[in-house]
Amino acid sequence: MADYPEFIPQSGACLVSKNVVTGAGRVRWMVREESKAPADNGWRIFSDVDSSEYLADSGNLQIVSFNQACAIEPALIGIYDFPVGTDLQLVRDASGLHIIDATTGREIPSENFYVAEAMRAAAPPKS
């Protein structure tokens, strides 16, 4: 039994920097690639302390349930259904948490975020 909630049923697995998993760093970059296996949802999650050299060593990446990644950083729930090719940055500042499209530099509007089926009845309708 997992020690984290199932935020998104059957959300699959993703590749995550061990710095995120261990808490050495916080989620900063999220990239969605083509799936490499049936259980792979394509998300690649990296931390604010990862370097190119660190990420070049595949031993520094770990396959985890997407729900486990969401338990570490709940903001990931909102990006679940973004398409392959998505490149995002999670920015924390004095005004809060922002998810930025790394290719355009624009903040993703909250109405674009995924809302889990169980939460849809409680969520305001998308405009």
What features would you describe in this structure?
This is DUF2185 domain-containing protein. It holds the Pfam family Imm33. InterPro entries: Imm33_dom. Residues 14-92 form the Immunity protein Imm33 domain. It comes from Labedella endophytica. The protein is an alpha+beta fold and 127 residues long. It has one domain (13-120). It is 17% helix and 29% strand. The protein is built from four helices and six strands, in the order βαββαβαββα. The chain has helices spanning 18-22, 52-56, 66-72, 117-120, and strands at residues 13-17, 27-32, 40-47, 61-65, 87-93, 96-101. It has a six-stranded mixed beta sheet with strand order 4-1-3-2-5-6. Strand 5 (87-93) and strand 6 (96-101) form a beta hairpin. It starts with 12 loop residues before the first strand and ends in a 7-residue tail after the last helix.
List the helices and strands and how they pair.
Elements (H helix, E strand, L loop, with lengths): L12 E5 H5 L4 E6 L7 E8 L4 H5 L4 E5 H7 L14 E7 L2 E6 L15 H4 L7
Parallel strand pairs: 1-3
Antiparallel strand pairs: 1-4, 2-3, 2-5, 5-6
Organism: Labedella endophytica
InterPro entries: Imm33_dom (IPR018689)
Pfam families: Imm33 (PF09951)
The best one-word shape is: globular
| Oligomer status | single chain
Uncertain residue ranges: none
Instruction: Give the rounded overall mean pLDDT.
Output: 92
Which range best describes the helical content: under 10%, 10-25%, 25-40%, 40-55%, 55-70% or over 70%?
A: 10-25%
Q: Beta-strand percentage?
A: 25-35%
Question: Strand order across the biggest sheet?
Answer: 4-1-3-2-5-6
| Continuous helix count | 4
Q: How many structural domains?
A: 1
Secondary structure category: alpha+beta
N-end to C-end Cα span: 38 Å
Radius of gyration: 14 Å
The number of strands is 6
The main pleated sheet reads as: 6 strands, mixed
Topology as a string of helices (H) and strands (E): EHEEHEHEEH
Protein name: DUF2185 domain-containing protein
Pfam families: Imm33
InterPro entries: Imm33_dom (IPR018689)
Domain Immunity protein Imm33: 14-92
